[in-house]
Amino acid sequence: MNMPAWREWLFSAKALIAALLALYIALAIPLDNPYWAMASVYVVSHPLSGATRSKAIYRALGTLLGAAASVVILPIFAQQPVMLSLVMALWITTLLYLSLLDRSPRSYIFLLAAYTVPLISLAEVNHPESIFHVALARSEEILLGIVCASLVNAVLFPSRIAPVLNARMTLLLDDARAATRQMLNTTEPDAFDQHALHRLMIDVMGLDGMIVHLEYDSSSHLPARYARDFRARMAMLTPQLISLGDALRHLRRHLQEPLPELEDHLQRVACWMQGDDAQVTAQQLGARSLQLETELGDSRPAHRLALASALGQLRALVELWQDALILRQCFADNNPTQPPVLRYRVRQLIGAPRHYDYVLLAFSAISVGLLVLLISLLWYLSGWQHGYTGVFIAAVASCFFASQDNPAPFIKSFLMATLASIATATIYLFALIPNVHDFGSLAALLAVPLLLLGTLAGRPQYTGTVILLAVQTISTITIQDSYKADFALFADIALSTALGVVLALIWARLTRPFGTQWAARRLARSGWISLSRLTLAKQKQDYDSVASEVIDRTAQLLPRLGQLDDHGLALHDATRELRICFRLLELKQLQLPVAIQQQLQPILIAARAYFQRCAKTHHPAPAPDSLRLLLDEALQRLLPLPGQVTREACQALHGLRLALFPDAPVVPSPHENSEFDSLGASA
After folding, report:
1. What tens digit of pLDDT does each residue of 177-233 get?
2. CA angle 209, 398, 112 (to 5 degrees)
3. Pick from 246, 257, 59, 51: which is nearest to 159 by CA?
4. I need a surface site. Which of 74, 203, 262, 457 has the fewest CB within 10 A?
5. How far is CA 480 from CA 145, 279, 439, 469, 474, in A?
6. Is the peptide bond before 339 cis (omega within 30 degrees of 0)?
7. Phi then psi for 229, rounded to 5 degrees?
């Protein structure tokens, strides 16, 4: 482990100052549970000011929503423990499901509201008349911590998220340059490794959380707009590059000799993307691509379609890259003199629907709700006075990790952190704090371990553990305005807390044993079903939503494929679904004559049957040769026909053929036929 950097020390010091300020004010007022104000500081603190503000707002809203629900629920069902348990479980299930549907940081509102109800309600189940006072006090304590964290973070050396996001965007562009250089400079058809592009796509999707926080870090909407537009285009870079790679690989494999003009143009594009040739513009590269498409197509008619496909994809790549550079510069400048002119169409990726496995999300939420119901009933039946802490902590542990494919390992880490916090609290509460006589000595006693622990909070691999240790330890110590430690009470609550996490762990292993493989199979199957529906979709189909969902589903599937031992799915090319989807969308959106649409119908029916077979077997089977023959036959019929729409249809069919049959031979040359002549006349 590396030594903390100065920024990590600064963040830890700011969090400590805010926590001690919140504790001092809470003790001075005094509030019922001052330690909650202190603990809340560590929940919402973040190295970046915008993220701290957003987390503070989300936590405030979640707390108020949960407190309001407690005030409504407890007085009605306090005398009916079974109904109270059932209503509380339904509340947690519903709010957790809503949080799982929102994969942005905003989901914390619903997540916090879910487990705030048992936290506030269960301790007062025998005194329902005091629930409003308890809910109000709880809200005041948390809001005090939120205000202190936000104030200190804003006043003491604020760290804006925009420069960090700008650096991340620059890094993504550098990674994209490296992958593009490798692909364009690769002369061997099968030498290009797609894993770098897969990782790039995953990293691009990781921008979403930072963009949400950015909205709380800027007074202008423009930076967030430019960041969203940049993210949309970078999300398209991977399928765009792989589509270009498909076309170039096919072309190079079947050419008898290299084409110097084409290879020279590819090198010029590569140099331009690297920034090595400032005199070349995107418009010049696009014009040269069109010129080469005509010249090379005329001199090599057998490869005309492959050349048109490769150069068309290359022009799209140039437009995409130009847009990304412009948007990155606009974001860095914050207030450009004129709106950017963008050419690459990605409207379908901005604010459009994403893919959700509603059944799996509902199952995860229901599983947590059933756990809370069972533990609540066990608590009531046992008569354990402080057993409610086990109910609450089980709800927290289960809700936090409900979005994971396999939550058990994470809950196990939660258990280890809980036991460590109990041990630490025991030492503080019964060995150290009895010697404290004023706030200064208390602050000194807490400062060193919290300062050291806070330096790790900014590192993603330690963030959850650090926050848990800090919050759990502070809460277990239960700092009050005077020393009131009772070992028997402390041990009773600590045992209930540890037992609650153990039960959550056991329940997770029993109800969620499926893990990554099951989630990946469901994602892959959903993709094949989506493609099968798209093949026969009507013209009124919302193609933008289809494109958005398939990109989001691919981004969810890619990281899971690398973790699998399932040789069928682990070797699955997840981006193939993207390429097939976009080629089908291109074909569907063309206003083709009825006669041509009828001729293409057998292809779509055969493709639909193939996708349905993959979905049924849960594995990517090779596409049948009969489908390739149908594609070849359609291309032979369409190639001789005039018109821009027909030309675009040929390129879409050729791209579909490349995605489905990457190693297939060249499309046979078109031949004369009376049927084709009549088709041409009708076109």
Report:
1. 988 888 887 655 455 567 777 788 888 888 888 888 887 776 667 788 889 889 888
2. 55
3. 51
4. 203
5. 16, 70, 11, 19, 11
6. no
7. -65, -40
Q: Taking the mean position of all CA atoms in its chain, how far away is CA 548?
A: 13
**Residue 344 in contact with residue 323, Cβ under 8 Å?**
yes
The closest alpha carbon to 656, from 591, 598, 596, 610, belongs to: 610
Whether 356 and 101 have beta carbons less than 8 Å apart is answered as: yes
Amino acid at 178: A
Rounded mean pLDDT of 243-257? 83
pLDDT at 111: 94
CA atoms 95, 100, 105, 106: torsion sign: negative
154: Cα within 13 Å, side-chain hemisphere? 14
Look up residue 348 and give its amino acid.
Q
State how far the Cα of 425 lies from the Cα of 420, in Å rounded to an integer. Answer: 9
CA distances from 76 to 69, 81, 84, 379, 623 (A): 11, 11, 8, 20, 61
φ/ψ bin of 566: left (φ > 0), alpha (ψ from -120 to 50), beta (otherwise): beta
Distance in angstroms between the alpha carbons of the first and the last residue of the chain: 68
Average pLDDT over residues 285-312: 89
- In this predicted structure, what is the pLDDT of residue 682? 31
The per-residue pLDDT for range 382-421, each reduced to its tens digit, is 989 889 999 999 999 999 999 999 999 999 999 999 999 9
SS3 content of the chain, % helix, strand, coil (to 5): 75, 0, 25
> Residue 545: how many CB atoms within 10 A of its CB?
13
Residue 100: the pLDDT is 94
DSSP 5: P
- Concatenate the DSSP letters of all residues of 653-681 into one string: HHHHHHHH-TTPPPPPPP---HHHHHHHH
> Does residue 460 have a pLDDT over 80?
no
Here the tokens at position 668 are 């046979």
Q: What is the pLDDT of residues 469-490, one digit of tens each?
A: 889 899 888 888 788 888 999 9
Q: pLDDT at residue 345 above 80?
A: no
C-alpha–C-alpha distance, residues 112 and 66, integer Å: 7
What's the pLDDT band for 568 if we cut at 50, 70, 90? low
d(CA 601, CA 607): 10
Helix (H) or strand (E) segment spanning residue 599:
helix 594-617
Cβ burial, residue 58 (10 Å; 0-12/13-18/19+): buried
CB atoms within 10 A of CB 355: 18
Within 10 angstroms of residue 657's Cβ, the number of other Cβ atoms is: 26
**Contact between 505 and 412 (Cβ < 8 Å):** yes
Residue 107 and residue 413 in contact, taking contact as beta carbons nearer than 8 Å: no
Q: What is the pLDDT of residue 368?
A: 96
Q: List pLDDT tens digits, range 28-70.
A: 998 888 999 999 999 988 888 878 888 889 989 999 999 999 9
Rounded to two decimals, the pTM is: 0.86
Q: Are 307 and 297 in contact (CB under 8 A)?
A: yes
Query: Which residue carries 């009895």 as its tokens?
Result: 434
CA distance 145 to 586: 53
The alpha carbons of the chain give a radius of gyration, in whole angstroms, of 30
Residue 676 banded pLDDT, cuts 50, 70, 90: very low
- 301-329 per-position pLDDT tens digit: 888 888 888 899 999 999 999 999 999 99
Q: Can you give the three-state secondary structure of 552-597, one letter per residue?
A: HHHHHHHHHHCCCCCHHHHCCCHHHHHHHHHHHHHHHCCCCCHHHH
Average pLDDT of every residue of the chain: 86
Within 10 A of 283 (CB to CB), how many other CB atoms are there? Answer: 12
Task: Report the distance separating Cα 72 and Cα 117, nearest Å.
Answer: 10
CA 497 to chain CA centroid, nearest Å: 31
For residues 230 and 327, the answer to whether their CB atoms sit within 8 Å is yes
